[in-house]
Design brief:
Length: 217
């Protein structure tokens, strides 16, 4: 004989099991969605913290580039004329409101030197350069005049001043004029340039005594 109460109880139990199963599936789906969202957010945060690019340019409200950070920096433009750097440069360049380069903090290749430069309207006005071997130099100049403080493994420490593209003070004296990198370059250029040209180039960087010792026949 059918028992209505038992049938009703069995139906309620089946509904409860079905409801429990639905809840479990819903919980699993919510957990999966939450995990995916967390992973996506984590990836976004990683992208924000680690930005890999070859160049970044910062512009002002007029669209003029005021700073450039890059691995292959362009040559300088001075008064509308491109001025080659002589070497590849990577690092940071600064520009004034007209878009002209006014300085930078860069490394050069293939020399491997690193330097901080400050530029005027007509070109470089100050440099602080360090070589790969540890030598360094600070040079301040205005037109054809300059003051330089230098230390390296060839001649040790020295300070000299230049007036009219010619060294007028150099202390202490160059110890080994013929062993300097400049003298070696001038010696190699003897077949291409006159002695007057070579002396002029040397006098702009070293004392008269050192130039005569370097270029003596």
């Amino acid at each position: 004989m059918p028992n209505p109460q038992q049938d009703r109880l069995a139906l309620l139990e089946r509904r409860q099991r079905f409801s429990f199963a639905v809840n479990i599936v819903a919980i699993v789906l919510l957990a999966w969605v939450a995990l995916g969202s967390a992973r996506h957010a984590s990836a976004d945060q990683t992208d924000l913290k680690n930005l890999t690019v070859s160049e970044i340019s910062i512009v002002d409200k007029h669209g003029t580039v005021r700073a450039r950070l890059g691995s292959e920096l362009p040559d300088a433009v001075i008064k509308g004329k491109v001025t080659p750097r002589g070497e590849r440069a990577a690092g940071l360049l600064l520009y004034d409101e007209s878009g002209q380069e006014r300085g930078g903090y860069v490394t050069w290749a293939p020399s491997g030197n690193v330097g901080l430069t400050l530029d005027g309207a007509s070109g470089q006005a100050a440099e602080f350069v360090a070589g790969t071997a540890g030598g360094s130099a600070i040079r301040l100049h205005w037109k054809d005049d300059a003051v330089e403080l230098r230390v390296d493994d060839e001649d040790g420490p020295s300070i000299h001043s230049v007036q009219g593209k010619r060294v007028v003070f150099h202390e202490p004296p160059v110890r080994n004029p013929k062993s300097t990198a400049m003298c070696k370059a001038l010696t190699e250029a003897k077949k291409q340039y006159s002695m007057d040209d070579l002396l002029a180039a040397c006098r702009a960087r070293s004392s008269e005594a050192a130039c005569q010792a370097c270029l003596a026949k």
